[in-house]
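Following up on my earlier thread - several people asked me to post the actual chain instead of describing it. Fair enough. Here it is, all 277 residues.
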Amino acid sequence: MSEHDERVLFVDDQPEIIELIKRHVGNTYDCVYADSGAAALSLLDSAGPFAVVVADYSMPNMDGVTLLAEIHRRSPDTVPLMLTAFGDIDIAIAALHEGNIYRFLRKPWERSELDRALSNALDHYHLVKSERRLRQELANANRALDAKVRELDELNQLLEYWVEFSPAVLYSADCDGGTPTLTYVSKNFARLIGHERTDIIVEPGLWAQAVHPDDAPERERRVREFVLSRAAEHSLTYRIRHHNGAYRTILESMRCIRNPQGKALELVGAWLDISPR
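Reply from S.P.:
Thanks for posting it. Predicted structure:
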């Protein structure tokens, strides 16, 4: 908490009022005193900001409404209170609209009333400062998040570019039901088998149906055993039928994501055409 967080500025042109305020709350709060609006503004520039300003309404040259309105313009977080010996409702309305007055104090006041008003005003000041700080922290966090999102978008675009022109086709499969079900294949899938990747999402069994009949039982067994085991990685080779009817030899590498109990949750892997080898 800074040195300004508890300071209270009292402004009144009557010395006896200032002396009364000193006796009532001078030893309880960190108080500063001014005898005119001009002196108060000078103190605001040289020693401010203040947490609370208590100003008398009726002062020569600059009344309390004008003073508190100017203080609000220069120091929006400062909480303004007004002292007045008048019960004129027009004064109160003008003060509320022009000076953003937090509370009025009637002359003469009770000591407990003044103490309670200052305590509430300081609480309000700290609340306003906290809200402003939290809004600033939130704005900073949002800017940092926006920067990260932009960075991730750039990385995703670069990754998609790499994947699209990579010879390996990436995939993921959900294992929650026991049998892996494809949930994603990369954009370069069509170059590998001649089908669009949307085809395999619509028909998840397309890949298994394209495996060579002589290789299909062995592949199915090995994938099932891998899923049921606690192993993290596995690889196998088999032949796959291209859309044009020709067969290609595929190296399939996979990694299993498991829960703490070892149950398979998801497979992530890659298919690579090794026929030229």
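The mean pLDDT is 87. That should answer part of your original question.
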